[in-house]
# Entry
Amino acid sequence: MAASTIELKIKRQDGPDAAPRWEEFSIPYRPKMNVISTLMEVRRQPVTKDGRRTTPPVWDANCLEEVCGACSMIINGKVRQACSALIDQFEQPIVLEPMTKFPLVRDLTVDRQRMFEALKHVHAWIPIDGTYNLGPGPRVGPNVQGVAYSLARCMTCGCCLEVCPQVTPTSAFVGAAAISQVRLFNLHPTGRMHAGERLEALMGEGGIVDCGNAQNCVHACPKEIPLTESIAAVGRQTTGYLLRRLFGR
Amino acid sequence: MVAQPKTIVVGGGLAGLMAVIKIAEAGIPCQLFSFVPVKRSHSVCAQGGINASVNTKGEGDSPQIHFYETVKGGDFLANQPLAKGMCDAAPGIVYLLDRMGVPFNRTPEGLLDFRGFGGTLFSRTAFAGATTGQQLLYALDEQVRRFEAEGLVEKFEYWEFLSVVRDGDGVCRGIVAQDLRTMEIRAFPADAVCLATGGNGVLFGKSTLSMVCTGSAASAVYQQGAIYANGEFIQVHPTAIPGEDKLRLMSESARAEGGRVWVPRDGKPWYFLEEKYPKYKNLVPRDIATREIYYVCRVLKLGVDGQDVVYLDLSHIPAETLDRKLGGILEIYEKFVGDDPRKVPMKVFPGVHYSMGGLWIDYEADGSGAIVAGSPRNHQTNIPGLFAAGEVDYEYHGANRLGANSLLSCFYGGMLAGPAMVSYARGLERSCEAVAPSVLEAGRKRQEEACNRIYALSGAENPFVIHKELGEIMTDNVTVVRYNDKLQATDNSILAFMDRWKRIDINDAAKWANQAVSFTRQLWNMLEVARVITLGALRRDESRGAHYKPDFPDRNDAQWMKTTLATWTPSGPEFRYAPVDISLLKPEARKY
# Structure
């Protein structure tokens, strides 16, 4: 429904140690606006609804096409990408908050470094011999490619961690994203040769046994990655790996 | 002779990451700086694919044909040895990406699948759904993470490049950068530095580019003496989805997979590209398709509902085929517009997409025109020790880039720049460690003072408003159709913006995660390059590739088959012109 203004309520916080506060903005409605374009509008005229001048709000965004994963935030209580959040689909006021499972930086920005560390921890790569010319890679059937592609679209946005009850600011659980990446690399013919390294990484503290099977992750994923299938598949792989290790391959 | 040199790469997109991989593979440590976590770089936005003449479809394609079409597509403004090197290397590059695990689409036999693209009649484009750039970037990101885990690569994410440090001889000896959280400004010594900082579309306001693509880093080194080449050549992609915050790309692959462009005329669809170009149809090169769409909308006034909109129609293709080959981009249209492109034609219009111009770089070719591998001249700017690769450099594409050649040029550029940096650094007589600390400190201090001046801005202007106005006037006057009087008026406006910049109210004193300060600095840098683009266009009185002047409608090889070289001076860019290396292919008329 078209309204003449968009009512925006933003949770502001100057830094990790500062107290949070709420600021409300009223900005002119234009068709097809998304949350990012309303934030841009606020930046061009940083005055609250009650006429107070304020600093421009701080947020993370880059591609605005939902492929970079930068602009995750909580919008009307649900975590998602702000770029694909079209104003017409939301009840007003539209309430913007930063994600809660990551250290806060400022306003709507948080530090998701733990996700990149998790990718390092699980060896989320294909260990190639080198970048010189060694001819084509292994053949892969279209069906396997289809599964790999669906997993490879993970943009490390953090939505799956935000909704996971097992992930807290202090917990060690790597979360669904990293587990799903293990499935991706263990699926590749070359990656499979080193599957054990990745499974070992998931068998320690913060690994796959920390999953509480709440299944929130798969519903929160903006790319519809089959995260619960990945967790189940990697769970089976770790069991098999453990048995093979116990009984000597 | 420096045994263990220090290297810095700025920018973590495809080109930067590939340079890092090449450096690390040589066993040399590398510091990688990026404004965003590298996995969020703009390369993720590339959709359609990467070109390589592997000829798996029995069509008789070859790297030589790819090379010819690249040079012809660029209207004979590209230096030919580098373009040839790139096309020759392309099949090996795609194989390497395949080995890294990129989930390229496959044929039933399990081989790499290829599709057609603009400016060619061959199936030459390897693709991973319609998010090929994302998949390629991730593959390189993973390889770099592996080197990071081994301790060879050190990442500085959320750091902004401010300047290079030049010693008394003008040699690049490091960089100055700012931590975007603590706002600390630091100098980092290095023997070789590579900028891989991407394009500058954001200075056109709304474009298909990501928010980081302000071109600020390139502008900073231009203001320090680096030559900026062919700035006036800006690619406007024919099919983008108009939006309030940006223009979202609708990949050329949509047309490669059978998408048709039309407008209603006399109550019937008029497929104007198919009618005018019966051979290439909807896959004429981008500059041509863009001009035709402009003509239909602006001159014939036949845009859909009288607006600046044409239809891009996929609705006649089976939904299953579309999902498999174009999934990612259909999802973008559905999410951001709300209509299903499997059922209704998409509404699109041209949008600023790519800068063919950029930092001038050198190369070394042998007598036969082959690039000399490992030569320190490859991808080096005119500032010794400063290299550039990716969209930020001016090479490969001439006056217009062919679709699916950008991922390739980024990758190939990084492959050349990394080894060039290593051999340059190893050949230095004294390492950056021997440079007096006062040289680095002076560079750091200069940036700190500049930053303090931004903090002190207390006028009445808003930097984001100035940026919006800059974007509007640049888009109106310096994109598809260019007139000299309007170009001159645009430069006058840019000068007025520069004046207003000095009266900005920064309105945020925070010494922590201050985006206003960073953006204001980048805005100045955008204004400097906007002048290079506008004045370069004003001077070039011909039409070539993406640069089109109705008052000078023909290509003029006698006068203008030249590279534009802009050098910064306090009173604005100074222009010189250099011959183009056409040693391998003879220029001919560009007909499709």
